[in-house]
Design brief:
This protein has helices at 39-51, 59-84, 165-177, 209-221; strands at residues 107-108, 125-126, 151-160, 183-187, 198-206, 228-232. By secondary structure, it is an alpha+beta fold. Helices cover 28% and strands 14% of the residues. The radius of gyration is 56 Å and the shape is rod-shaped.
Length: 234
């Protein structure tokens, strides 16, 4: 009689082929029979016990990357929902009602008394026009000395008439642009108080010498240190 059949060794969980106790890979399908040591080894052993097969160590990096992707997508969704939320719209109370804009002030003008027997009408109102705005002279503008007025002025320069009036006008415009008041040019031959033969560049028309002296001090600050006061008479 033949003896009992030998007991087959352990079988490969993937293909069912027998293998030795200390065999690491299946010789038929290449399946890893003995999991490696460490964390991956413990995970692969638990996988085999749970599912009866093991796809390979590549599964763990894939699963880890998938978990990171899921966590990142979840965080992005949560942040987007938090950023898109808007607070409730709160209605604010209006301020106190504004007083109506008043019409321009008008002055009441009393009309003369109406003779007896003539029906008198209601008092009429006339709108007072605003005061006229005085326009400041533009820089470089020149002032003419009044024909019938005598007074005092500040002489900036006296230029010989032989040089022509245009040079005197040019100096006067420069002084006007520098901010000096009432700058103009006089022909000294037309005034008894001046030496003839000169074009006189002046600044200011004053009724007294004291006023002219005060103006001369201000003119000196602007760079006309040689200026002096002079009376202007016909």
């Amino acid at each position: 009689m033949s003896g009992p059949a030998p007991t087959p060794g352990p079988l490969c969980p993937r293909c069912g082929a027998p293998h030795g106790e200390d065999q690491e890979y299946c010789l038929d399908c290449g399946y890893r029979l003995r999991p490696p040591a460490g964390a991956f080894g413990r995970l692969s052993a638990a996988w085999q016990q749970r599912f009866g097969w093991y796809p390979g160590d590549w599964i763990w990096p894939v699963l880890f990357g998938l978990l990171i992707a899921i966590a990142g997508a979840t965080a992005a969704i949560v942040l987007a929902d938090a950023g898109s939320g808007k607070g409730p719209i709160v209605a604010t109370e209006g301020g106190p009602p504004h007083a109506p804009t008043t019409a321009p002030a008008t002055a009441t003008v009393a009309l003369p008394t109406v003779p007896g027997g003539t029906p008198s009408g209601p008092a009429k109102t006339a709108t007072v026009p605003p005061p006229a705005t005085r326009t400041a002279p533009r820089p470089g503008a020149l002032t003419a000395w009044p024909a019938t007025q005598s007074g005092y002025t500040v002489v900036l320069e006296s230029l010989p008439s032989s040089g022509g009036r245009s040079l005197a006008v040019e100096r006067a415009r420069a002084a006007s642009r520098a901010g000096l008041p009432q700058v103009g040019v006089l022909d000294s031959s037309r005034y008894s108080s001046l030496h003839p033969g000169y074009y006189v560049v002046f600044s200011g028309i004053y009724s007294s010498r004291a006023e002219a002296e005060r103006a001369r001090a201000a003119v000196g600050v602007k760079g006309f240190g040689a200026a002096y006061t002079r009376q202007i008479t016909r």
